[in-house]
Design goal:
This protein is mostly helical. The chain has two domains: about 5-25 and about 260-330; about 60-250, no CATH class. Helices cover about 80% and strands about 0% of the residues. The chain contains ten helices and no strands. It has helices spanning about 5-20, 25-30, 35-65, 70-95, 105-150, 155-170, 180-205, 210-250, 260-285, 295-330. The radius of gyration is 32 Å and the shape is elongated.
């Protein structure tokens, strides 16, 4: 890690520490703060809360989102699944095409292929939707648990947590909606129909072991379809969905992703200066001035600005002297 990056990480740590400390102020101190300062503090809490939860969600989602298979692999897998499933579903469709003579088997295969495509497609969507909903509920539940273990002391703490849940609901709220009933109903009804026909055929074969063994044998084709749906959900649908969620969370990160170290350094210098100025005002309101020299908040803010300008002047003079020394002894 280079020096610039190390300095930037230190500045970011300082900013986080200052913003976090405001959530531990007593409600009495918060109540005495001017509205302008409180508004800036609230804005920083919202940004901090959103950035932290965005970083956490990106970390959670990246593991699944990284393997991005090609569309050709996705299509090839779908074709293979449908072809294999068509053999099982054709058992049911053969009963409907038995009077077609020589065309009975091709018609049964075509009908089985259509049925298997529908149930595979619906089953994959139902499985993916359920897993997305589970992931979103886990993220919201984690915030609730954190809030219980570290309850907010003041309104800034409440704002911090509400900004986190708000961002998740804004980006992932659609995952919490009800499943389209037609997806589950179609997948379920076709699976039930195939199981019923398979069970009838197995029963006609007179397999030993009674109804239990016959039921297990009849359920195997349907079970394979749902296993294939889960596989496609894991390998294709979820990586795409999670990658899309990551793209939606990235704008909430602070510092922003993708900027250079130099740009980040300039941004953090401005931010830490603003945070320290706010924190100085907060400390004056909470503790006052022991010297008795500063009578009110405007005087405290002016005194802080003067000291900052003096420090900046000394820093510039030091940098100038170092540059002169470097030229003389180069």
């Amino acid at each position: 890690m280079n020096t610039t990056s190390s300095h930037n990480n230190h500045k970011q740590f300082q900013i986080d520490k200052l913003v976090d400390s405001w959530r531990h102020l007593s409600p009495e101190v918060i109540g005495r703060l001017p509205q302008g300062i409180l508004a800036k503090m609230s804005e920083q809490q919202q940004r901090s809360g959103k950035s932290h939860v965005a970083e956490s969600r990106i970390d959670d989602l990246e593991t699944t989102a990284k393997p991005q298979p090609s569309n050709s692999a996705k299509i090839a897998t779908k074709i293979i699944v449908v072809m294999i499933s068509a053999l099982t579903f054709s058992a049911g469709t053969q009963l409907l095409t038995s009077r077609l003579g020589s065309m009975a088997l091709p018609a049964a295969m075509a009908g089985g292929g259509l049925a298997s495509f529908l149930v595979d497609d619906r089953a994959t969507k139902v499985t993916t939707k359920a897993r997305l909903a589970h992931s979103t509920k886990q993220a919201l539940g984690s915030i609730i648990e954190q809030k219980k273990s570290q309850p907010p002391i003041n309104e800034l703490g409440e704002l911090y947590y509400s900004s986190q849940t708000g961002l998740i609901q804004e980006i992932e709220g659609k995952n919490l909606g009800k499943q389209l009933w037609i997806d589950g109903a179609l997948a379920g009804s076709l699976s039930a129909a195939e199981f019923t026909v398979s069970f009838w055929i197995v029963a006609q074969l007179g397999l030993p072991g009674g109804l239990l063994i016959q039921g297990i044998a009849a359920s195997l084709p349907v079970t394979l379809i749902w296993i294939a749906a889960a596989f496609q959900s894991d390998q294709f649908e979820l990586p795409e969905e999670f990658a899309d969620l990551i793209n939606q969370y990235e704008p909430a990160l602070f510092p922003p992703a993708g900027i250079s170290e130099e740009e980040l350094q300039e941004l953090l210098i401005v931010e830490i200066g603003e945070e320290k100025r706010i924190d100085n005002a907060v400390k004056f309101v909470a503790e006052g001035d022991d010297s008795g020299r500063l009578k009110n908040l405007p005087m405290a803010e002016a005194d802080y600005d003067i000291n900052q300008m003096r420090d900046r002047k000394h820093q510039l003079e030091k940098e100038r002297d170092m540059a002169v020394e470097k030229r003389l002894f180069a």
